[in-house]
Design a protein that fits this description.
- By secondary structure, the chain is α+β, with helices and mostly antiparallel strands.
- Helices cover 25% and strands 30% of the residues.
- A 6-stranded antiparallel beta barrel has the order 10-11-12-15-14-13. The protein has a 6-stranded antiparallel β-barrel with strand order 4-5-6-9-8-7.
């Protein structure tokens, strides 16, 4: 889908990344500011291989946000059958380790026929975890981060340029957010929906079809998802990303129930170690004072240090009192009184 956008009498082209290519390999010139993507640095970046009729293949990018959920763009998977989507860590080229999609969520506000692009988010649930992946990208970011027209240095990763030599690329970009952050901010496509966009500062950096759904990472957190772009007559481009914070509740309503019950192998080991440490701790605490340890722990978080010190003193005094032989003291005292009377 393409839209004509006129900004200050300066025509530009607003394009939603519909994957129309009949080829799965894009052989295009490499931008000077583009670096080759290194999987070991970003193990949670996924590629989506989408099978079409006539044996055609489309590519999109996604982010593994938990061991079973991938976040991508809605336009990548809209009107697609989940059985035709394969998820790979990194590029799918020369990669046989894929995951099937068992459930596909598309935001209810997304409308592929509308010239106003909103809700361009999708969550894919895969059939099983990648057992060797122990790091997932955390969702973050808020409008406060862009207060007073602040720009952020971020990176974007995608598989829009892939061939037999290069398997995905990473770019450094500058990002802004606000009512006038996107070019054409007074256009019908943006004027009422700018709150849900993160906009790259226009540059010669190109975004290709397979980059759709790819992550925008700022300060190590997942801020945005690649959605569409504005093309200018002079060759510059501004890529627009969905601001995940705007749809945070929708995303977490899907991923949190499983996230809280599904632990990674690393998390299971940590939990087991903590359990063993607790068991060992119980063994070294003398039983008679076990309850005192529990009480002091509760008191520590609920009362002042002065009161806690007094409780400790009372505990010590009780111990000393237990060591005193009351019957012996009474007998000794009675004998002393008796001797005084005899004298």
């Amino acid at each position: 889908m393409a839209h004509l956008l006129v900004y200050n009498n300066y025509p530009s082209r607003l394009t939603l990344f519909e994957l129309k290519s009949t080829k799965h390999v894009h052989k295009v010139p490499i931008d000077d500011d583009v670096n080759i993507f290194k999987l070991e640095d970003y193990p949670y970046v996924m590629s989506l291989k989408i099978l079409l009729l006539n044996k055609r293949v489309e590519t999109c990018t996604g982010s593994l946000v938990t061991e079973l959920f991938v976040l991508t763009a809605a336009h990548c998977v809209y009107d697609k059958d989940k059985k035709d989507i394969k998820v790979y860590q990194g590029t799918w080229i020369r990669n046989r380790d894929s995951r099937n999609v068992v459930k596909l969520y598309i935001h209810e506000s997304y409308n592929h026929t509308s010239e106003v692009i909103i809700g361009d988010l999708s969550v894919l649930k895969i059939d099983k975890p990648f057992s060797y992946i122990e790091e997932y990208v955390r969702i973050g970011g808020s409008p406060i981060d862009f207060a007073k027209n602040k720009y952020l240095n971020c990176i974007v990763i995608g598989f829009g340029i892939i061939n037999n030599e290069h398997e995905g690329f990473i770019n450094q970009i500058m990002v802004k957010h606000g009512r006038k952050a996107c070019e054409g901010y007074d256009s019908v496509q943006i004027i009422d929906t700018w709150q849900q966009y993160l906009c790259e500062i226009p540059s010669k950096h190109k975004t290709y079809e397979g980059d759709s759904g790819g992550p925008m990472i700022c300060d190590g957190l997942l801020y945005g998802v690649c959605s569409f772009s504005i093309h200018f007559n002079d060759g510059d481009m501004q890529t627009i990303h969905v601001f995940i914070d705007y749809y945070r509740k929708w995303v977490f309503d899907i991923i949190e129930p499983v996230q809280s019950t599904s632990l990674t192998a690393k998390q299971k080991r940590i939990k087991k170690n903590k359990t063993n440490q607790k068991s060992d701790a119980k063994l070294i605490i003398p039983y008679p004072y076990h309850i005192l340890y529990i009480i002091s722990g509760i008191l520590w978080s609920s009362i002042s240090q002065e009161i806690l010190s007094n409780v400790s003193v009372l505990s010590i005094e009780k111990g000393r009192t237990d060591e005193i032989n009351i019957e012996k003291i009474i007998t000794d005292f009675a004998n002393t009184k008796a001797r005084k009377k005899l004298l």
